[in-house]
Amino acid sequence: MSEAEVTREGVRRQRPGRDAVPGAEGRRRRPGRRRRRGEPTVVPEAEFGSYYGRPIIKPPTWKAADIAGYLFLGGLAGGSSALAAGAELTGRPALARAAKIGALGAISLSTAALIHDLGRPGRFVNMLRVFKPTSPMSVGSWILLGYGPAAGVAAVTDATGLFRRAGRAATGWSALSGAAVTCYTAVLIADTAVPAWHEAYRELPFVFAGSGAASAAGLGLLAAPVCEAAPARGAALFGAALELAAERRMERRLGPLAEPYRAGRAGLLMRAAKVLTIAGAAGAALPAGRSRAGAALCGAALLAGSACLRFGIFEAGRVSATDPHYTVLAQRSDRKAGR
Amino acid sequence: MGFFTDTSVCIGCKACEVACKEWNALPEDGLTFTGMSYDNTGGLGANSWRHVAFIEQRKPLGFQDPGLEYGDYGDVDLLGLTAEAAAAGQTANGEDRGEFRWLMASDVCKHCTHAACLDVCPTGSLFRTEYGTVVVQEDICNGCGYCVPACPYGVIDQRQDDGRVWKCTLCYDRVSDGMEPACAKACPTDSIQYGPLDELRERAARRVERLHEAGVEDARLYGHDPGDGVGGDGAFFLLLDEPEVYGLPPDPVVTTRDLPSMWRHAGAAALTLLGGIATVYATTRGRR
Ligand code: SF4
Ligand code: SF4
């Protein structure tokens, strides 16, 4: 075995990435926890071994464009349906129509994304073979089945002016089931062994709800005339505030496990989401947001912000699954907390 | 029924990997070299249902030796795992040979009592057999891939060409016919043992005790406890180091344990969304 000690660099007893000695590979300092000089640590630094730095769990096999896109479009559809119901009740026909058509378009696209990820349409039908409460994907398929047609009826009756009463009922129902569509997707990804998703299961639904409202508001600002867009501006503020507050809480509670949300491409996307959402919501609240062009700009920013958020969360999950550090960290801290 | 894999006697011959591939007619994974050890399989996947891990450790615990030259180490110390063996190695050769050890372990699907893969499968394609094992029905699997990130052990995986998922069936076909699984049959050192779980647990407990008596303090069981986060594994292990050194999660929990709470939080979020939108309309009434 002694030959193996000699590396190309000539360093003896040091083979990065090849040792499975505890702490040799994948050892990390906890970020944000600096030791003061000269002070002895009471608790030793968390060290752990890994199998050549290979992941412990499997990262999702889902394609980001499909599933992160699905999360975004589902949120947009659900939020838009809620916005549409309010607009119809308060007599804002243009906003209602824009939101209804937007909801139908978004849910159709999101279903297409889902089917694309599955490979063929027949497989979506297979999803409805059983109803399984333990599987968020099964529950979600049924929620989608309850929501999609209603969103369709709401949009088509509005556009054609036929069957007004049925249209009203469909609008109301799609608002309620739309809220479920927006939030169930958080459970969908949280109910996995992916540390950055699973450990965030308390806050993720609220992040998604806020982001869904903000994106729906964005669509409203973009598509509805300024004279009817007051609720969209309000929804933008509400959505952005909810999203940012929930996200802040999430990162706080995750502690060192929030690292995947801050680092690398995921961090970039998350920061972009924050900037776009804040800019969009603030712009909508300012007088400049009441001009047609200003409203459209704010709306586009909100939509882009929501999309960035979903892709950022997706990427953070992928990173946290690929690095054994996070899997061990999550389980060790769980054990310490006696959970 | 289940597996007990005693890694302390594994010699890394990969007979289990080969037997599994042969019996289950699994496609090849491609000829790739990982460049990290003798392990070129890398891990469990759609086409590798048994995986032998090779861990090179710089631990002054023992040396690789059949135990013939330096005396009789009894039946437990074939691989020179004890401190005495290390010391013996040093004195015999006058050089420090006890600085390094090799751990080998054959990994497999754990057939969890509370199996996350089975819980989250939306089509019911994963099911529990009459032997308590977890099996995928490939004619029903949708290829949604939900079970892949749900498995806390990173076992089940999607096959690239057909999109469906595959994993160890604990040789459902052989077992139904009264035979033992192919890997257990092929293992030359009996590192892989197949049988009723309580019998295996008893045997495993005795083995750990004997190893402890012989001075192998690091020996421990993994996945044997029906009270752990996954309700105990149908395939459990005797390890000689921390689980994560073998690429195993230290304290896995079935992902669906928190599901009721997840749904509650999602429900609250949905109500928050509806309430928020309603409030927006209430406060913008009349204003355009
Ligand atoms: S180890 Fe993973 S694939 Fe095997 S039964 Fe448990 S959850 Fe399922
Ligand atoms: S990939 Fe197949 S086995 Fe896995 S959850 Fe989906 S349908 Fe079930």
UniProtKB/TrEMBL annotation, chain A:
Basic residues bias spans: 27-37
Keyword annotations from UniProtKB, A to Z: Cell membrane, Membrane, Transmembrane, Transmembrane helix
Location of region: Disordered: 1-41
Membrane protein topology class: Multi-pass membrane protein
UniProt main location, coarse: membrane
Record's compositionally biased regions (Basic and acidic residues): 1-18
Transmembrane segments: 67-89, 139-163, 175-198, 204-224
Tagged with keyword Cell membrane: yes
Subcellular localization(s) per the UniProt record: Cell membrane
UniProt xrefs under Pfam families: NrfD
Annotated InterPro entries: Electron_transfer_protein (IPR052049), NrfD-like (IPR005614)
One GO CC annotation: plasma membrane
Record carries keyword Membrane: yes
Family: Belongs to the NrfD family.
Protein name according to UniProt: Formate-dependent nitrite reductase membrane component NrfD
